[in-house]
């Protein structure tokens, strides 16, 4: 299966940040500008770019369509497990956020969709 980004409306961004030099901020602003409803996930901030921030995957509303990972793989694997256990099934790992461990883990989740290697900002340029 693959992720059809044209069907996606609400995107949670794990690793969102207020630092405009980091991809967690660049991706958030890019997707917001393109009309997606973005939900930043970070334990460090209450708001990012004026948007209420969720402290963890556990706080996210159930109607999130896609979770984007912009975190180191050792954080990503833990957040992926939490998100999957919460019932989320679409996961996008930005370049550098994936690892062999995450890819191997994903192969055992036949009811979930994953994207690795591709940058979501490039894939949403339509």
UniProtKB/TrEMBL annotation:
Residues 4-97 form the CoA-binding domain. This is CoA-binding protein. It comes from Fervidobacterium pennivorans (strain DSM 9078 / Ven5).
């Amino acid at each position: 299966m693959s992720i059809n980004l044209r069907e996606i409306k609400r995107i949670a961004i794990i690793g969102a940040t207020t630092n405009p030099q980091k991809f967690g901020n660049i991706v958030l602003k890019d997707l917001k500008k393109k009309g997606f409803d973005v939900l930043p996930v970070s334990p460090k901030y209450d708001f990012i770019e004026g948007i209420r921030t969720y402290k963890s995957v556990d706080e996210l509303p159930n109607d999130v369509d896609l979770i984007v990972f912009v975190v180191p793989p050792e954080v990503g694997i833990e957040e992926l497990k939490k998100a999957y256990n919460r019932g989320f099934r679409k996961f996008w790992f930005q370049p550098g956020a994936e690892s062999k461990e995450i890819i191997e883990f994903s192969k055992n989740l036949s009811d979930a969709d994953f994207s690795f290697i591709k940058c979501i900002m490039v894939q949403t340029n339509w």
